[in-house]
User: What shape does this take?
Amino acid sequence: MAIIEDGDDSIEDPKPNLDSKSSAELKATAKEEGKTSESPAMATEAKLKSKEAQNPKMESGTQIESKEALIKKPEPESVPKPEEKEEIKEKEEKEKEKMEPSKVSKPVPTPRLKPKAKEKLMELPKPSAIFQRLPKDATILEEYWIREPYAKVTIALIPELGGAKAYFISEAELTPEEELARRRLIDILSRELEPPEGEVDAKAYLIQEARRLQKKYKEAIGKLEESSWEKVMYYVERDLTGFGPIHVPMNDPMIEDISANGVGIPIYIWHRRHESMPTNLMIVDAEAMSDFIVKLAHMAGKHVSTAFPIIDAMLPGQHRLAATFREEVSPKGSTFTIRKFRAEPFSIIDLIELGTMDELIAAYFWLLLEHRATLIVIGGTGAGKTSTLNALASIIKPSMKIVTVEEIPELNLPHENWVQLVARESYGLGITRIGEVSLFNLVRTSLRYRPDYVAVGEVRGEEAFVLFQAIATGHGGMCTIHADSVDYAVKRLTSPPMNVAKIYIPLMNIATVVERVQLPMAKASTGLTFGRRLTAVMEVADYGDYRPIALWNPKNDTFVFDASKSFLIERLAARLGKSVQELHEEIRRRAVILRTMNRLGIRRNVDVARRMSQFYANPEGLEKDLRSLAAHGKALEKLREEVEKGSEEGEKK
Assistant: This one.
């Protein structure tokens, strides 16, 4: 180390001694080693050290300024000239160019993308529901549109499933630009959609507002062709006012039941012609499935959560919903089953046309229900109990007062003099039951309405006891019960929690069993391999004494009807002062009326009820009108045949 002496004090220089080189030589060395160019201060320090090296020994007593002082106050000759300043500046710029971008003091700013450009570059989120494509080797059995040209259904045989049937949903595919517009429009709708004033059609109002907002924010949403906007509006309607991924089967009139058994499992449906089969729809996101259950619950006006994970409710359109939430009670995740409700319920003429019963059985019910006979419909799940009860209740005399009691409102009668009562769940939490209105309360309340008929959608508890008490006081009664035969239905009625006494069982006059059965091969040619049939119609004479009036023959799909042993007709004849033969003749007369109405296509419940009212006011006039309509129909049919024949001859010529 070099020691700088200043009088008696000595200072150790932290820098090593430099060789005796000139400032120019130092600059050349620095340039060769690739070091950063010298600043003016560094040049001054180098000059100082060079001077010290040339005069290693100085006379004592000579005052020398410290290095710092020399740097702060350089000699006039050490100040770089303007030419040197420019040279140093050029060298610094060259060295900066050689340096890496990360070492640059002021990096070049990255240009920011506009939100619209960013969204275009973003990848679309993974779909929560997957629609598998129809395999190329599939055999198509049936195709039909649900909403042309956006939604289509294909039923095909799939080799991968061993030749089993599958239900394929096909919807119009959106391009990336259309999908982006859909997402933006739904986001804007969720922020700016205002509730309508008064009662309006929800779908029409949504489309109207979507169109308005699409024009208002056309720059932000994007520009599309009109055909593209039609597709976008279909999906907006489907997702906001419809049923989302299950929108197509919910709008398919051939579907009776839709079931989701968990996350990642194909959704199953029940088809009227093809029975149960899987679909190509699968919900793969557990959170999306839970959100969908919450949406269904809100559509039904109910609450579902982890604390209350089970829901039984009625969706818009009177579709019945049963669902579980998350993994609380269903390990595979959220589940649901939707039993679809027909907008136009089956009439008695529809059941005759479908083969559920024939005209004689329907006429037999018509006659006895007119005189307040009591009836119980027995069957398993999905057998058609409620549809049968609804059709039979629809032929009750229009002037009679009917009170229906249900947990879920499914009955839909054409009568004006009809009171509909529906049970209500508790508003309380846990074991607290505040505000609950049970079927028992409603059946007891219905007796104060002085009804001619009390119809209970399904008996399963103490309401059955109250119903039989009402029947014992002279009211007419109808209900359904889950059982597979009359004998087991009676055992359920006489056991807890129903507890109907055995002596009250004969108060239920008629017991009919409805089943979903496999049809004979002769009927399979029509495309229907199964159907619903009244397999037995029994009169209840006493506990354990059930007398068959009609039975279904599975060999040829016909009914064997024999009312000659009917004690109810004998009892009715005695009450009316008529002979049994006269009532048998009345049954045949009414069977002819029903058959004529079927041939004329009078099937809607409202139209059937109108003809029923006409029958009670003027039966001869109804028969005359029906004969006239039938003759007119035959004349039109003959005229149609002549026109078709003339057309064929003209084509030949």
Observations:
- Residues 271 and 362 are 26 Å apart (CA to CA).
- Residues 1-41, 55-77, 100-122 have pLDDT under 50 and may be disordered.
- The first helix runs from residue 23 to 32.
